Write the structure tokens for this entry.
Amino acid sequence: MNLLFKHISSRINLSDDEFVIILQQFEELKFSKNELIIKPNQMVDYKFFVLKGCLRSYFVDLSGIEHTVQFAIEDWWIGDYPAYFTGKKSILNIECLEDCTLLKVKKENWEQLYKEIPKLESYARIQLERGLASTHQKNINNHTMSTREKYEKFISSYPKLEQRIKNYHIASYLGITPESLSRIRKSILVA
Amino acid sequence: MNLLFKHISSRINLSDDEFVIILQQFEELKFSKNELIIKPNQMVDYKFFVLKGCLRSYFVDLSGIEHTVQFAIEDWWIGDYPAYFTGKKSILNIECLEDCTLLKVKKENWEQLYKEIPKLESYARIQLERGLASTHQKNINNHTMSTREKYEKFISSYPKLEQRIKNYHIASYLGITPESLSRIRKSILVA
DNA sequence: CGAAAATTTGACATGACTCAACTGGAGTGG
DNA sequence: CCACTCCAGTTGAGTCATGTCAAATTTTCG
């Protein structure tokens, strides 16, 4: 079964016919490992659903340091949401960490679907609510947990991700240096 | 003009009649300074719109330290969103920092309104999108900026808030101790 | 096998924390 | 009007986690 159908119909009731209408607005694209599917300073009026592969979004600060914002694997949405939602130029890079197969949809087409299939706006709202709740939780964890605890939480929350991702990307996601992560990993092994 | 009408109609077109229907689902409540309008471990199937006053939401970690998540003044929504969206028990306290006048709406009534006034779901989605975009931005700032820069950004972004709020609440929002904030303020004065 | 990439280790610097003490202002009661 | 208390904010000293920079080691992959 199509991963996107599964994803949407796990949140709202969706007929096969309706899904056909939805899928018509999507474009299936393949990208190679290391390719950047979004670069900073672009108009980003589209977002992606991952059918296969692994990606990360990150931004580069003034010192040239990369900060990973999000990872995505099969069954996840990914995009430059600040840009997508506000219409401003992109600030993120989105990079394929593996060869990827993605479904791309333009914002205007996606929002047009709200009119044809109103309950799709409920799906969108539910997704946003979950995103906001999890971002809130992540913020809370950021303030509450030690770096070590954040790392342990990350690998226990996303065991599938951890195996597919370099440690320095995890470090960049946790907001620490690879050296610090290495020391934390060592201290966990010893204990 | 009613602040809530102004808020909604700045995002979507809204007739007076429709607003009457919406307002019927709200309850106006007054609270005193220092009152907690939400405490942890409650069911929170409602949220608030601020007509007057100043509030903050915060949680208490295992060490007993308070972490301020959000401030709200006139024209802002506030609630325990993780609890509201997920249906789980609350984790936040929401405290009145001044005497407050609030509009309360229950989740089920609010969502019922989506059926009567479908474009209200667009309003909800737009609010969520902005919330998510600003939370993303806040996360980015957290990783990019020094504590001093975060403080300077806070007071320049919310000059009205700063005057109404104790420094130790700002410190708690920035995730630092009041002592550290004091030292940062001193270093800014000297420079 | 050999080169490049990823990870680990060491030495030192730094920013924030903790804990304790002190300052200054607002409000209160004698 | 003064003494007292409370609260917010400031200051000082010592500690610790993480950063930086450089080098060594291990892993990956053509």
